[in-house]
Inverse folding.
């Protein structure tokens, strides 16, 4: 099987999971992943430690399957990591697999592809950008911010940008130096929680 065919198979598997568990929007939540994990018999272990390039790990032994997730991960990163590790459970005959952010082998890239498709399928992403009147090679950072706001997706700004480049909506490098939170606030204003903290005299960044 070619790499292309392998990645396409991972996308198909992700769409099958979406259909099986009734995921109909790009706003996939932690509860959705917990429900899938429970049905698959995967135990979740929240890990207190922190390593620079490691967000999660998949383990399978005689006692069953488990996924270790760094407890301090922000919500969107935890969702993506759970999607990534779910692919290892469904598609890889491995006993241990770690989500190393620097890994570039086929199995790890396939897990990234699976996680993205699980959260925001390419077809839905393409339709959403077309609805914003974005054409090929014309997607700019503000379009990604608007897409995230309007779709309420739990896929991160960074992953959305990578997907836009992959699908040729933007040239490579378009989103390399974007400060997404600052751009979001410049378009939509400061979040309510920041305003409330500021009123209480709490310094916010």
């Amino acid at each position: 099987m070619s790499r292309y065919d392998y990645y396409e198979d991972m996308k198909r598997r992700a769409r099958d999971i979406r259909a099986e568990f009734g995921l109909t929007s790009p706003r996939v939540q932690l509860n959705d992943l917990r429900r899938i994990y429970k049905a698959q018999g995967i135990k979740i272990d929240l890990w207190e430690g922190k390593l620079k390039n490691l967000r999660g790990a998949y383990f399978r032994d005689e006692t069953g399957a488990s996924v270790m997730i760094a407890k301090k991960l922000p919500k969107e990163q935890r969702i993506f990591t759970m999607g990534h590790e779910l692919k290892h459970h469904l598609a890889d005959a491995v006993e241990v697999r770690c989500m190393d952010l620097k890994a570039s082998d086929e199995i790890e890239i396939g897990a990234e592809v699976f996680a993205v498709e699980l959260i925001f399928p390419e077809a839905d992403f393409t339709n959403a950008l077309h609805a914003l009147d974005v054409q090929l090679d014309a997607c700019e950072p503000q379009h990604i911010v608007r897409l995230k706001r309007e779709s309420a997706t739990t896929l991160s700004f960074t992953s959305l940008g990578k997907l836009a480049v992959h699908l040729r909506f933007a040239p490579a490098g378009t989103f390399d130096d974007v400060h997404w939170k600052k751009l979001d606030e410049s378009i939509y204003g400061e979040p309510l929680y920041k305003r409330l903290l500021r009123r209480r005299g709490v310094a916010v960044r």
